Amino acid sequence: MKCPYCAHDDSRVIDSRDVNDGVRRRRQCLSCGARFTTYERLQAASLFIIKKDRRREEFNRDKMLTGIRKACEKRPLPTGTIDKLADDIEAELFHLGKAEIRSSAIGDMVMDRLKNIDNIAYIRFASVYRPFTDITALKQAVDTLVGVQPEATEATSQLPLLPGDELEAIARDLIHGKASDDSRKDRFAGKPKTRSHR
Questions:
Q1: Is residue 150 part of a domain?
Q2: DSSP secondary structure, 157-197, as one string
Q3: Is residue 134 in some structural domain?
Q4: How many domains does the chain have?
Q5: What range does the domain containing 4 cover?
Q6: Do 67 and 115 lie in a common domain?
Q7: pLDDT per residue over 25-82, tens digit each?
Q8: Using an 8 Å Cβ cutoff, are 101 and 109 in contact?
Q9: What predicted TM-score, i.e. pTM, was given to this entire model?
């Protein structure tokens, strides 16, 4: 094992620990004395991913890890959280014992774990992985995440001009006939309608 600092090709193992489906070794270079960490992992049988367009490509842990890291960028996660998440997913994939698996299944595995780790990372990943067609679909995903019952509204690319709570209050007043000119004036910041006298 070459030293990453001086490229000397001999080192000694000073600590070994089992981690997930591999072994973590702490090494010390016999030339410069620098310490570095290596991981040994069993090379499993090839696993192929079925893409959305039905193409097949070999499972690439680094590619999956890159996507997870982008979603978790600048999030306050403990050191090693992302690598452990990727290790868990990789182990689960190979334990399934399948030669092929759909990319959507891997995406679901990532999202299930991100949901329990960091909500912002989950939404970031989901916004790329899931085909949200408009802001309403994305809002419903966020509402579901925070435990709010999503509103059954028609898909629209437009946002309301007033916040939802104000719109509900106005609708309630109009239905019950309680909206006074003053309340309308306060809400719309305009002049109340005047009645013509005959």
A1: no
A2: SPPPSS-HHHHHHHHHHHHHT---HHHHHHHHTSPPPPPPP
A3: yes
A4: 3
A5: 1-42
A6: yes
A7: 999 999 999 999 988 876 666 889 999 888 999 999 899 999 999 999 999 999 889 9
A8: no
A9: 0.51
